[in-house]
UniProtKB/TrEMBL annotation, chain C:
This is NADH-quinone oxidoreductase subunit B. PROSITE patterns: COMPLEX1_20K (PS01150). The gene is nuoB. Binds 1 [4Fe-4S] cluster. Its cofactor is [4Fe-4S] cluster. HAMAP family: NDH1_NuoB (MF_01356). It is found in: Cell membrane. InterPro entries: NADH_UbQ_OxRdtase-like_20kDa, NADH_UQ_OxRdtase_20Kd_su.
Amino acid sequence: MDGSGIIRGLLIPLKHFFVTYIDDLKWLGKKYFKPEGISLRSSAETRGIFTVQYPEEKLPVPEEFRFIPFLVYDEGQDGSRQIRCTACGICTKVCPPQCIWIERHNDAETGRPVSTPVSYTIDIDLCMNCGFCAEFCPFDAIRMDHDYELANTNRYEHDVLQLEELLKPASYYASIRPENYTREEVRKAEKLASKTIKTTEMDTANPN
Amino acid sequence: MNDPVDSFMNFDLISRYPGLVKKDQRTGYSGYIVEADCLVQFARAVRDELGFDYLSMITAADYYPDDLMDVIYLLYRTTGGPGILFKVQVSRLDSKVPSLSSIFAGAELQEREVWDMYGISFEDHPDLRRILLWDGFEGHPLRKDWKEPLFEEDSKPYKDRWPAGKHKRQEDLNPFKNNVSYPIGFEPEHFSSNNEKALYDALNKTSGNLNGSLKTDQIIVNLGPQHPSTHGVFRMAALLEGETIIDLKPVMGYLHRSHEKIGERNTFLQNMPYTDRLDYISSMSNNFGYALAVEKLMAVTPPERAEYIRVIMAELTRISSHIMTTGFLLNELGAMFTPSLYALEERELILDIFEEVSGSRMMCNYFRFGGVVRDISDSVIEKIRKLVFNRLPRKIDELDRYLTHNEIVRLRTEGVGVLTADEAAAYSAGGPLLRASGVPYDVRKAEPYSIYDRFKFDVAVRYHGDIYDRYLVRLDEMRQSIRIIQQAIHDIPSGPVMTGKSQYQPKVPAGEAYGRVEGPKGELGFYIVSDGKQNPRRYHVRAPSFINLTALSEMSKGEKVADVIAILGSIDIILGEVDR
Amino acid sequence: MTEEKLNTSGLEIPKELENVIQLTTLDRIYNWSRRNSVWPMMFGLACCAIEMICTAASRYDLSRFGMEVMRPSPRQADVIIVSGTVTKKMVPQIVRLYNQMAEPKYVISMGACANGGGPFKEGYSVVPGIDKFLPVDVYIPGCPPTPQALLNGLITLQKKIDGESISKVRWYQKNVEEGIPIPVLGPDLMDPRQYDDISRFGRIQSPEIVDDDHIKNEELDENDTGVAS
């Protein structure tokens, strides 16, 4: 108990202090405000300054990052929106805090349900960002967004998202989750191909 | 649950207590049903003659509309092996059970919780007050016929969400525009709040007068619930003489979020993200425990690769939790923030992996019944490899060099908050708290789950039972976790990560199950009763942080006020798990 | 941080005096000095508090905004970050802490739970939003908001401070508001502002059929029977 333990221990912060400058010199000019600098600072090799200076440089979020859900629509060739959601209601059933409300109407003539939601509401003051809605959606229609900059001054205006605020184009989805998007498109194309093969087979087997 | 006792003991409990003890013969259930009259004798025999010296869990289950409630006891041996489960059945109208706190000191807080939630009173309990709610609260909320103010339906999914889902805020339908309701005829003007008196009366004022000749006054000091170093909203009422603690009562419930009541309304899958929010700095372990419990009922096993991923994630969680605790223990000792900053830096790198794998830094929600959500890519494995083969061992050694021989740390921690091995087991302490007292009890070794029996690792044990040893045990455990991950990364096979298809309303057969894992804080268990419907009838969390607090009072007596903060830091509580 | 220009008065300063003289408005310099030293209270409730600690730690580093000085005492704090689930048992303490803070004071509600109850809203022991009791300035959605989302919220608060005017701020007005009455824990959480409602609704059997006409009718009925007998 002569204090040598303290002194030896305090050499470590001192080492950290010097390493900061050595590392800055080593990566001169490349460490800050550059994508490679940010990825260096979040890798296992990081030394010295660890801070990511948020508004100017942003830590990139990984592909699977989930925040608030959004609804995907496909853009038709004439610019029309084709909403993928069919109002099947699986997301409302699987949602743990029950924060999704869907209104589905029946067709006046046939009496069968219309396959687009009349209204779709997500209360993000309830949402727990678990991602179940996106995981179990059979139509790839609801996905988790990457946008976390949602701070506002009035939750009654901003925190209940309606259909129009939720809809985002498939191109946006492809930009934030390229791997998932490609995988789903490939699967869809395969499904479509097997379907057409089946119908052509049936046609050839049954020429009448 | 298998019946453990009969399989290896030829000790006939049933014929020894004729007519008082019988087997639980409901389908899917196990263990014994004991009459309340002979509960104390039975428990003492089980402890002294069969060696089940570790009271793991006390809880209750309500079988409304039948006039029946079960009080459930689960005991283990600290030498390892399966446990023994027994129940006492009581009527809902007049529910009384003898208290086990004279045999197992660890029963005290758990029995108070059962009283608070179910209104089952424990005779001869030393201090039977409400624990998670406040004295004067109306009703016992976990009873099935008790409805909360914002009650919508008995089980999820709610019918009004689809197909005619019009958004509403449930509290707007309440006459007070808030989550409250009052008994009929209640007049607030005539109400006088007196719910602190019972707490202060419960403090044992007799053991004072330490100085002998010098006469001193005793004062009560409240630490918390808002206190810069209580790890959240935790409160301690301390009776002081000078600066010495004469008695101390933990007061909790400031973060009681009705986890279990909500859990009994959720479907089985919907509980998974809720478990993330129990011990919110080690969500992967919580997922693990819950998945094991439900998988026991469903009788599915995950594929090989998923098992390896699970182990890797659980051990990474342990490292991130322990390194944070170590940093914050130093905070509590007054080393404001530098050690914590070093610790949090490593934690951030681990959280990056969680974020990449599961999509969220803290609330991973990564496990499913029969596997995990998605496979981990080679780049993630490469990242983990870099961390566990290079960076983390280096950084833990650095933390070790930085702190372990520091004289101030040693003077503040050595010999403070001592818990002996016998006391630790009697108080049902778990995790590093138990192992620092010299009891080598680790669920991963005592009753190996998942694939832990394949890995070579040692159970970290220290023998002094003080704060310093708990710190050292955590350092050792991080090293052992790294060892496990290194083996797992080396051996991980390729293949699917999910047995069958992940369903959102899985079929769970009727019965009961208890799944437990060695979480960073201790034995984390989930007791689940299913009656074959889509939501559990009973969902109980055996929360290690909560049960570890039972020993806090004993550890703090005779110490100084400043040491209590350090003792609390060394127990490593997370309020989300303490209060649920 | 980008270089901040204080000179907003619109007047031209000669080139040679640019580093010597700054012209600005009183509002601007008042807000500028306040916004760069917003001291949060060292106060955490639940999961979000861990993210708040991470925000204060080395990776996100609150001190770049002049907010690293977390004060344990409410007297020295400027902003209370309500980070986590607000339970009924805790809300009296939170209101008391808010009352003890000196003006100017701000409230940030961090995470779904503090905003509107979050996933635990349906529970019996949770307050559906801290704004039932405190005047919230900034809401940060997310469960939990990532540290960057919290920083975004703090920047939103800075913008709000920028928009204030020294002549209109509430703490320089003549009639200073009194503190918020502290809720009481009775059979359930009781807001003293609602005592009248509690005793009025307390007489009715079921809370669903609450409306004023109904109460009046009931009282009339009682009177009628009294006369008849």
